[in-house]
């Protein structure tokens, strides 16, 4: 493994779209996940099991599942460096890096097939 800056460290979480938050949360809780952020009344919930995270994003029934399936999250050592690498390579991230209320700095981008990706790093507590 290389120690070059801007490398991906691991896949941290996957984000799934849902039209029924309470039902989806109950499903993952039944599998041993616990809520780490949000609650069943929220539009975004993070559940955790060990070092694995599942995010649930509430979407309208009209857009599910055809326009958004979810997002894969890659944790990186430096979000801003990864963003600059993407821009320098001619890629088009959907937004600049920002700090999210759930405790991560991230930016979203789509791959050529339309898969949603996020490059993120936990914010210092």
Please tell me about this protein's structure.
The structure is a single chain. The chain is of the alpha+beta class and 125 residues long. The protein has one domain (8-122): 2,3-Dihydroxybiphenyl 1,2-Dioxygenase, domain 1. Helices cover 16% and strands 41% of the residues. It has 2 helices and 8 strands. It has helices spanning 21-30, 79-88, and strands at residues 8-18, 34-37, 44-49, 52-58, 70-76, 98-99, 104-110, 116-122. The chain has an 8-stranded mixed β-sheet. The radius of gyration is 15 Å and the shape is globular. 20% of the residues are buried.
Concise overview:
Helices cover 16% and strands 41% of the residues. With 125 residues, the chain is α+β, with helices and mostly antiparallel strands.
How many individual β-strands? 8
What would the principal axes of the Cα set say about the shape?
globular
Distance from first to last alpha carbon = 28 Å
Numbering strands along the chain, what is their spatial order in the largest sheet?
Answer: 2-3-4-1-5-8-7-6
Mean pLDDT: 85
Q: What's the assembly state of these chains?
A: single chain
CATH topology: 2,3-Dihydroxybiphenyl 1,2-Dioxygenase, domain 1
Helix/strand-derived category reads alpha+beta
Just give the CATH class.
Alpha Beta
Percentage of residues assigned to helices: 10-25%
Q: For the CA atoms, what is the radius of gyration?
A: 15 Å
Number of helices: 2
Topology as a string of helices (H) and strands (E): EHEEEEHEEE
Classify the beta-strand content into a percent band: 35-45%
User: Runs with pLDDT <50, length 5+?
Assistant: none
Just name the CATH architecture: Roll
Profile the largest sheet.
8 strands, mixed
Whole-number tally of structural domains? 1
Write out the CATH superfamily name.
2,3-Dihydroxybiphenyl 1,2-Dioxygenase, domain 1
């Amino acid at each position: 493994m290389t120690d070059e800056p801007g490398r991906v460290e691991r896949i941290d979480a996957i984000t799934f779209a849902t039209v029924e938050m309470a039902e989806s949360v109950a499903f993952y809780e039944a599998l041993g996940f616990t809520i780490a952020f949000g609650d069943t009344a929220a539009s975004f919930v993070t559940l955790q099991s060990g070092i694995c995270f599942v995010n649930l994003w509430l979407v309208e029934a009209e857009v599910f599942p055809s326009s958004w399936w979810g997002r894969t999250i890659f944790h990186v050592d430096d979000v801003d460096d990864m963003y600059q690498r993407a821009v320098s390579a001619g890629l088009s991230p959907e937004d600049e890096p920002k700090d999210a209320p759930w405790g991560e700095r991230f930016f979203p981008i789509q791959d050529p097939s339309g898969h949603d990706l996020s490059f993120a790093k936990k914010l210092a507590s």
